[in-house]
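job 3f2a | input accepted
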Amino acid sequence: MPTALPDGSPQATVVRAERDGDDVLISTTAARQKARNLRHDPHVSVAFYDPANPFTYAEIRGEATLPEEGGRELIDELSVKYTGEAYPVEPEGTVRVVIRVTPDRVNGS
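job 3f2a | predicted structure (109 res):
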């Protein structure tokens, strides 16, 4: 998931995602670089591929919001979905946010 650093250069991270209708949901903490980048510029691109057929992919471009509501629940859900285990307890004071990407454009094959 690439975002733009304040100087305009790209910063990319691998993320785990879930859908909510047409929106894509990604979990992070409020203090991480991608959350800081998105507060500065909410434009984002997210790319997915099908593990059963890596030549099938989708790219979603849109704008992100960063609500705190549901942040801890989402990371727990994603952790079980992708690893089969609950997400570890985080340090007290950690603020989890949901990166909610609302698509403007979808490309794929």
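job 3f2a | The mean pLDDT is 93.
job 3f2a | closed
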